[in-house]
Amino acid sequence: MKYHRLWHHWVLFVGSAAALIAVKSAELPTWPACFLLVGLSVLLVNAGLPLARYCVRNLFLERNSAAQNAVFAVIGTVYATLVAFAVVVVWESYSDAESTVAQEANALADLERMSRGFSVPVRRQVQEAARTYATLVIKVEWQRMNDRGPDPRAHAALTELWTVYTDMGPKLKENPLYETSVERLNEIDDNRRLRLLASQTEVPAVVWVMLYCGGVLSVVMVYFFGVRRDWVQRILVSVLAVIVALSVFLVASLEKPFAGDSGIGPDAFVSVVANMQNLEL
Amino acid sequence: MLCALALLAYPLLGPAAAAPVPHRRPPPIPVGVLHSLTGSVAIGEKPITDATLMAIDELNARGGVLGRRVKPLVVDGRSDWPTHAAAARRLLRRDRAVAVFGGYTSASRRSMVPVFEQLDGLLFYPTFYEGIEASRNVVYTGSTPNQFVTPAVKWFLDNRGRRFFLIGSDYVYPRAVNAVIRAQLESIGGTVAGEGYLPLGERRPQAVRKAVRRITAARPDAIVSTMVGDTNLTFVKELERAGATPKTMPVLSAVMGETELRVMDARPLAGNYVAMSYFQSLPGRTNRTFVDRFKRRFGRDSAVSDSPEAAYTSVLLWAQAVERAGSTDTDAVREALRGASLDSPEGTVYVDEENLHLWKYARLGRICPDGQISLVWQSETVIHPVPYSPYRRRQEWLDLIRSLYDGWGGRWDRPPGGRELPVATSKSVMP
């Protein structure tokens, strides 16, 4: 490996590290973010290789190759387990959030459908409030719940739905659909709370530290493989960087189930609104 | 040497350099302020004009809107509805007002709306009202019945009893609001013990006494009053004479506010209730500073109530929308208003995307002997504005309004000497 113009590699190394941080903190669309993350990681590890090898020369590494392989195998296994654990956790939380949204939307659709068994004024009130709630969830709350929390008006529309049922006179409460409707209302409320909670969930900082440290350690271990051919080592380190970057990207994009392009959308609510019956105003 | 050169150059460059740079101030933005400054309702509308002008002055003190001063064009509606319509037309056509803050009575609003629709102007109407209207040319910053009367009636039903007597001045607002209450009570298990109307401005004790006699004979648990002005005072005094007190037969007013209480002796009314979205006594820093500024400007004895507060909020909402739209164009401002929110003295309010009414809190207060209203209850959240009450179809509400208008001979209140129209449902126990 040639070590002249080492400062070029320093500049490239620091620059790509800074760009990686910028890409991670910027809210880019999924595919450009993935492409940049992988590309910059490959650049970073390739810029870091001559710097590492400048410090520890090949002759020394070839002598200690067996011990290093064993350590790399341990680090690799532990890191793979950690990544698998993180991916399973975020994936489960993502699919739970998806099912919570579906349950909330289904309960709303049921409630609206059951309101047809009540008197026309009740039906009109339920339909008005249900439509308002769904529309606000779709148009306002979905955008804001990740960073600014629940929408006060969506909460108000749900309270209004409750009011329709709690304020009913004794005669209306005798309707056989009353109890089931209140159950559905409870489902909406519970699932809404779960949805809002899920929108705020994050992978714990300690897991992120482990993911980053594990990735860096794995790459550093490959730097010190006693490989004679320069290009072979570059390929090895690049492949590892791609795998680590993709793992981090996967965890990051599933971390917030409602954020970004891969986030869960309000499609379930859109379909409910589309199927709501219009009562004559 | 340099000094000499400077002296030589001065005659050539000096005057040009010293001449003031031509600086054209951008023209002000004209807005209309159309309330009655004279006539029977002037007393109620004066504080609304005051609050509107205060908001405009505050905007100008902060640099105006889009870097331009806001120029209020104050016009007197003279408590006359055709005058309101004519003035609105003049403001939009001749004065090129980009928005008009105005209207108090439903009659004034209903007279002006066709003008705004025809000329595509923007009216900000700051008064709680009966609903049954949603024009794309009006931003309704007052409450609809489901945002003040309906929750208050429910509170009374839960805390006082099931039988209500509905009494009001005989014009469109009380008639429509009482129709909503009647339908609500039928739905939630209350009963209407009776319903009656007195002519607008009725002060004759014998006429009021007759109504009170009917009320006491019906023995309701509570009275819902939509009577305006001095009639309230006579009414409460007559109730007291008949042995009814706020404890035995409380009156829930859906009209009165601190402004009205300030100009009458509030002591006989103390202990009764008011349903509104705003009271001067509300806690919170935004409200306290608003009330302080209002009192500093209009005197310690002045009072703020629901409509002046809504008028103040109207101006701020309009300014916010203009800044957001980057233009004073009606369409652009209307679109910028949809979904807008503002931290107002009554709390955060939101403009509904569909009907251009505000989402606001419902509140119930008790009248104090000093004319203030203390908060008794407040809704858990802001309430969605529903101008057309769900108890009837939209067309049925419009038919009701039309039948009142026709029944009163083409006007929005009972004509002097006119007969009392029958109430809106056959179940009424009133003659």
TrEMBL record, chain A:
This is DUF4239 domain-containing protein. Pfam families: Bestrophin-like. The chain crosses the membrane at residues 35-56, 68-91, 205-226, 235-254. Keywords: Membrane, Transmembrane, Transmembrane helix.
